[in-house]
Amino acid sequence: MANLVYQLVHERISISRGNLAQKILSLKTEHDGIRIKQDLPDLARIHRCPETLPKVKIHFDAAFDKRTFRSASGVVLWGHRDGFLASKTVIHNNVPYPFATEALVGLEAIKLGISLGFQEIQIKGDSRTVIRKCQTTVKDRSAIGAIIRDIQNLSAHFQKINFKHIHRRENMYAYKVANEALESEVISYLAQEDSNRQDLDPEG
């Protein structure tokens, strides 16, 4: 630092404020090199933090029994490289019409994401209408409007949430989970550590 001051004063070197600041910072970095190297791991950890947020895909589908007016929600979570994370089923009674089943299972997908503490999720379903309604913040006045509003309100719990429509063939596992639950009338929650399904393909 003293050499820099000597050059500027005695050798009458002209330098802009921006360049002066850069030179001073460079000299300070060299002087405090050991301390800065010690701080680098913490800085790197801080900057990597947003990139390490859990990013999961939640597939949802429903099954409906028109004789008993019961439905089952099937929700499946897929993580890194489409590895199986968890699945959950819920039985709903007194469902007035099949159209409501897809909205109910969409709500269950949101609730499961919140309960597991995810900050960034992508929710996929094969009901184009429900996905489209979830993608907007406009107040829905249809028959399933109350459920859609619950989904919209709960979406605020996530830092990032994305709703995507997929074809039925891409959602077969979620449908299978829902259909089996409706037939057995049993609700369930299956986590990765309880299953050997880690390598299942969500697109299969």
Describe the structure.
By secondary structure, this protein is of the alpha/beta class. The chain is built from 7 helices and 6 strands; from the N terminus they run αααβββαβααβαβ. It has helices at residues 2-10, 17-31, 33-48, 98-115, 128-134, 145-154, 172-184, and strands at 55-65, 70-78, 84-92, 120-125, 160-165, 188-191. It has a 6-stranded mixed β-sheet with strand order 5-4-1-2-3-6, sandwiched between helices. Helix 4 runs parallel beside helix 6 (145-154). Mean pLDDT is 76; it is low at 24-54 and 195-204.
Structural class: alpha/beta
Major β-sheet strand ordering: 5-4-1-2-3-6
Percent range for helical residues?
40-55%
Strand proportion, as a percent range, falls in 15-25%
Number of strands: 6
**Rounded Rg:** 27 Å
List the helices and strands in order.
Answer: HHHEEEHEHHEHE
Uncertain runs are 24-54, 195-204
> Averaging pLDDT over every residue, what do you get?
76
- Number of continuous helical runs: 7
Query: How would the global form be characterised?
Result: globular
User: What is the straight-line distance between the termini?
Assistant: 65 Å
For the sheet with most strands, the description reads: 6 strands, mixed
Organism: Gossypium arboreum
Pfam families: RVT_3
Domain RNase H type-1: 60-181
InterPro entries: RNase_H-like_dom_plant, RNase_H-like_EbsB-rel, RNaseH-like_sf, RNaseH_domain, RNaseH_sf
